[in-house]
Amino acid sequence: MTGNVTGKAMAGWARSSIIVTLLSLFGVSAQAADIYSPKGVVELFTSQGCSSCPKADEFVTSIHRNKDVLALAWHVDYWDYLGWKDTFAKPDNADRQRRYSRSFGENQIYTPQAIINGRSHTVGFKSQKIQMILAEYDNQHKGMMVPIKTALENDVLDIEISHGDNIAKATLWMVYFSNQAVVKVDRGENHGKTLTYSNVVRDIELVGMIEPKGLKMMLPLSEISHKDYDSCALILQQSTKYGTPGHIIGAVVIRDLKS
C-alpha cells in the first residue's frame, strides 16, 4: 500500500524536557527489568487500516522477544480515511517516516515499510530479506557499532557512551513501547479481523546530544509512575545533512518493567 504524503518535520522532539524525562520514567521496581543490547534495529511503519500490513505485523510479533533484533512498530495515521482509525497511530509517527524518506532521497512513503538500522528500507513483510540485510550489516560492522554501556543498581541505570568518531552528530532517544496488544478491527480494509501487535511505539523523548567526549549519566527508573508502558529502548542515532534521521549506531532495550 503506497501513499504520496508530505508533512512537517518532527520539530517537537527537540523541545522535550530532558530532566523531566529522566525523573519521570517508571513507577515500578526496575530490578525485574530485562536489559540487553540488540545487534540491529528494525522500524516497521504500519497501519491497522492497511490490508497489506498484517503479514508484516506478524513478523514483528515473531521476533519481538529476539534479543538480537529490536523491532519497533510505528503506527501511522494517513490511512485512517479508509474507514478505520488506527488506535495506536500518531501524526508524529508519519512525520518520522516522511523524514526517513528525505534521508533516502525519496518522495513517497508506504506501508508496510521496514527501515533497517536507519540505513535502508524494504517492504515490511519480506521477512527473509530483512533478516538477510540485518546479517549483512552485522557482518560489515554497520550494526550497533557504538556500545551503550549500562549498569543497574538500586533502580538507577548508569549509562555510558565512550568518545569516538562514530558518535558525531548522534542523538540519544528514549522510545517507549507496549510489548503486545490485540485489536479487533470493525471497519476498513481489515474489517472483521482481530490483529495482534507487538512492540507498539507509544512515545519518544529526547535524552540528549552526544558530545565528542562521550556521555555519562544516571537514569532513575522508579521516581514517578505517570508513564504506563511495558518497555523502552535507548536509541543512538546519527542525523543526515538534512537534519533527518540517519544511521542507528547503538541501542539498549529495557524490557518488562511491569514484571
Brief summary of the model shown:
With 259 residues, the protein is of the alpha+beta class.
List the main descriptive attributes of the protein structure presented here.
259 residues; Glutaredoxin; globular
Oligomer: single chain
**What is the name of the CATH class?**
Alpha Beta
The name of the CATH topology is Glutaredoxin
Average pLDDT: 86
Approximately how much helix is present in the residues? 10-25%
Q: Do you know the CATH architecture?
A: 3-Layer(aba) Sandwich
Q: What would the principal axes of the Cα set say about the shape?
A: globular
Strand order of the largest sheet: 2-14-13-10-11
Structural category is alpha+beta
| Uncertain segments | 4-30
Total tally of structural domains:
1
CATH superfamily descriptor = Glutaredoxin
Tell me the span between the first and last alpha carbons.
37 Å
Order of helices and strands: EHEEHEHEEEHEEEEEEE
β content, as a range?
A: 35-45%
Q: How would you sum up this structure, described in words?
A:
The model is unreliable at 4-30 (pLDDT under 50). This protein has helices at 18-23, 54-63, 91-103, 127-139; strands spanning 2-3, 34-36, 40-46, 69-75, 109-110, 113-116, 120-123, 149-153, 156-161, 170-184, 194-209, 215-220, 231-239, 245-255. The radius of gyration is 18 Å and the shape is globular. The chain is built from four helices and 14 strands. It is of the alpha+beta class. It has a single domain (2-255), classed as Glutaredoxin (3-Layer(aba) Sandwich), CATH 3.40.30.10.
